[in-house]
Amino acid sequence: MDRPRNSRSPARSPLRPRLTRWLRPPRALRPTRAGWLFFAITLGVGFAALNTGNNLMYLLLSLMLAFLILSGVLSESSLRGIRVRRRLPRELYADAENKIVLEISNQQRRVAAFAVVVEDRRAPPEPDASNRSRTFTLRVGAGETQRRSYGFRPNRRGRVQFEEFRVFTRFPFGLFSKSLTLPASQSALVYPALEPVRSLQNFGSPRDAGERVSAPMGSGADAIGLRAYASGDPLRRIHWRASMRRRSLLVREVESEHESEVEVRLRTRGAQPGERFERSVGWAASEIAALLDAGSRVALRTDDDLIDAGAGARHRARLLSYLALVEPSSDVAQPLPNEALAEPT
Known about the structure:
Structural class: alpha+beta
CATH architecture of the largest domain: Sandwich
Number of helices: 6
Strand content: 25-35%
Number of strands: 14
Number of domains: 3
Shape: elongated
CATH class of the largest domain: Mainly Beta
Radius of gyration: 30 Å
């Protein structure tokens, strides 16, 4: 029986990626403005040497060609052992300056790397200059690791995909810009932009984003005892004297601690995507962050889902992750994807 013409053999399917990887040059070389000028001078000297037969012109031409070869060898020595690792902060917020640290390592044993520029590239919806960030290090010794950072200011919430590093150098003479690409795919979640919440005293009145559903948190005068510190407890409630005697952190337990539950509500059904919905999401995130910092247990309710009340860093990450991915729903309630409830990576 004849095989269909469009069918492909399983053994030949991975051939194209292999060929692409083999044929891709390990380095990209681009002359700078000074390099183009040096090329023009070199061609002029070579043309004069051929026409005049002057030995000094031939000597000058050989020196200039050796200069080019030396530039290529030294620039290659700066890039050969370079490895880059990206360290993202625990929380990324939209419309805020987030610090991203790059660890630039030189794995060569004897040769140092000079004038290394690392460009961190992301996968945006529209390619432009704002989707790449650069950092520079003058020297990375053999076997050393240098830490450099840059500011990342995302303009919207949601997923952001870091794709690769572009490492290049103009060492030693600035005639060429030699670069290599290091794949470094990494996904991150950008939380909504937070706004300052001035006061939580009047939280009982209904709002567009949140609504108070229980009594306020107890004050220091309502303390009834001490208990062990738990993740998410506010630092202002730590009893330092007792903690020093016990050699472990203890916090004041207040009478109304277990009665303080807040439900932040976000209207999603029938809402239209746009600036108004983004403001509601941002305000809900701001209320959640402020209430958790104040020591309250916070729940989140939308027209489609409910996240039970809780406290602590993990619960904060769960709520903000949900708000980072939430979208308006139609009139008919539809369940949100499980990805929305996942914790950030």
